[in-house]
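Late entry, written up from scratch paper. The run itself happened at the end of the previous shift, but nothing got recorded in the book at the time, so transcribing now.
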Amino acid sequence: MFAFFSVIAAAVLSFVLGTAWYGTLSGAWIRVSGVPVNENGQPQNGANPMLYVAGFIMQLVVAGMMYHVFATAGVDGIFAGLVAGLGVGLLFITPWIALNNAYSGRPVLLTVIDGGYATLGCAAMGLVLGLF
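Output as recorded:
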């Protein structure tokens, strides 16, 4: 049961960091992502709450799998969790984002923004999971 709460806490922290990350970098992200915008310059589908619900569910999936991998590999402690989470974001997720963006001809800055969040978010998840 405790694992369930640590996964939720890890997902919540990552989600909150994502809000701050993309809030800070929204102008650049909108410009390089090519997402359609409304008359206020905001993403057309940005007010759709289902995007945020789905985003949080995906955070739970990542945090749950990271918990499983950490438990199996014996990752224990804040520093070990932080480093392992950093590795997941930087060395698993970011290269996959880069691959998808390269094949679709997307700007490198989009990879930097999205990969940066994947790295930060997974590092935060690892830190929380390492606590428990």
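The chain has five helices and no strands.
(Scratch paper discarded after transcription.)
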